[in-house]
Amino acid sequence: MEASPLSEDEEVLLERGRQDFDNGRFWHAHEAWEDLWNSLKARHAPQAEILLVQGLIQTAALLYNHQRRKVRGVTNQWAKLTPKLEPWDVAWGFDIAQHVKNVSVFFHDVDEWQQTYENVRLPTIDKE
Could you tell me the sign of the dihedral formed by the alpha carbons of 98, 103, 104, 108, in that order? Predict the structure, then answer.
């Protein structure tokens, strides 16, 4: 799948969410990406892209729940986000497939709570 271009305002929201996410501010990333999600819905963007952003929101929610050691929150978010993100390899310059792998570590860490957040980033793709 290839993602269609975002508007300038949507790019700002995507980037704001990425910066928050990369800095461990998962709740704030969730909020920025939710604004992006609402913008995509309002302009009737392709459904797959709306679901992609919803999946990103859910990865932030999963990590927010992990920080709070909420088993149900982590497992519910994982179940919701995987079908939305797994169809994607890359989108808008981000490596979505790698992102799912990175987040899966936190899903598998439920009840152990050993994972830390300092290296959590939304991975970008290398441009040739």
Answer: positive
Model pLDDT for residues 48-91, shown as the tens digit of each residue: 999 999 999 999 999 999 999 999 999 999 999 999 999 999 99
3-state secondary structure of 127: coil
What distance in Å separates the CA atoms of residue 74 and residue 92, rounded to the nearest whole number?
A: 26
Q: Which two tokens stand for residue 121?
A: 């980033």
**Are residues 25 and 55 in contact, defined by beta-carbon separation less than 8 angstroms?**
no
- Quickly list DSSP for 37-85: HHHHHHTT--HHHHHHHHHHHHHHHHHHHHHTT-HHHHHHHHHHHHHHH
Residues in CB range of 116: below 8 A, 6 or more apart: none
What domains are there in the chain, each with its CATH number? 8-108 (1.10.3450.10)
For the question of whether the overall pTM of this predicted structure is more than 0.90, the answer is yes
